[in-house]
Automatic annotation (TrEMBL):
Domain TonB C-terminal: 133-224
Protein's name according to its UniProt entry: Energy transducer TonB
Keyword flag Isomerase: no
SUPFAM superfamilies: TolA/TonB C-terminal domain (SSF74653)
Cellular component, GO, one term: plasma membrane protein complex
The organism of origin for this protein: Xanthomonas dyei
Length: 224
């Protein structure tokens, strides 16, 4: 007799457990993700960055002020010029020689008195001088010293000039000429101009009358 053994078949229906599959899939995914994260540093190589291109910078020249020049202090000393008053030129004054009356002395004892009518006819007539006389030295009334010429003063010139002066009857010089030069034209001209313009003399007298007379006048210029 054949005996058939029949397997017991579960009465539960066959099917897929979705929750279990989901859980397993999630676990596998997490493991893959974790393994991928661990492999990333090994497989990833850092790409070297190219060096930055050098930037060209335009040079700018800043003008610098030149150093100030050295200034040395200069002291200027001003020496005022001392005004030197003009030196007084000594004018030699000489006492004029008194004029000697040339009228002869008549002895009354030896001269016979003529008659009254003949006395008037025989009386001598005093004639006026026909021209200037030579008086030699003249008597000064006013003789201001001449100014020292500037050019002669700077050149250190000095000397004495002798002038020949024609004095009129009013005591004023009518003519002045150089008798003896001082050796310097400037001094001669200064003396002649001053005497002719400013000097006054005592007129020469002859027979009680003022007459024209020539005389010599020395004028000295000295730096001492």
């Amino acid at each position: 007799m054949m005996v058939r053994t029949q397997s017991q078949v579960s009465s539960r229906p066959l099917g897929i457990d979705t929750s279990r599959v989901l859980a397993m899939s999630t676990a596998v995914a997490l493991h893959l993700l974790a393994g991928g994260l661990l492999l990333i540093p090994l497989s990833h190589r850092a790409v070297p960055q190219p060096p930055p291109e050098p930037r060209w910078v335009m040079p700018i020249t800043i003008p610098t002020a030149p150093p100030p020049p050295l200034v040395f202090p200069v002291t200027v000393r001003f020496t005022p010029k001392t005004h030197t008053p003009p030196k007084t030129v000594p004018v030699p004054v000489q006492v004029p020689t008194p004029l000697i009356n040339q009228t002869p002395v008549v002895d009354s004892a030896t001269v016979a008195l003529p008659a009254a009518d003949t006395a008037m006819d025989s009386a001598p007539t005093i004639a006026a001088p026909s021209g200037p006389i030579e008086a030699g030295q003249l008597q000064y009334l006013s003789s201001p010293a001449p100014s020292y010429p500037v050019a002669a003063l700077r050149a250190g010139q000095q000397g004495t000039v002798l002038l020949r002066v024609l004095v009129g009857t009013d005591g004023r010089p009518a003519e002045v000429s150089v008798q003896t030069s001082s050796g310097h034209r400037a001094l001669d001209l200064a003396a002649r101009s001053q005497v002719l313009r400013s000097w006054r003399f005592q007129p020469a007298m002859q027979n009680g009358q003022a007459v024209q007379a020539y005389g010599l006048v020395p004028v000295s210029f000295s730096l001492n």
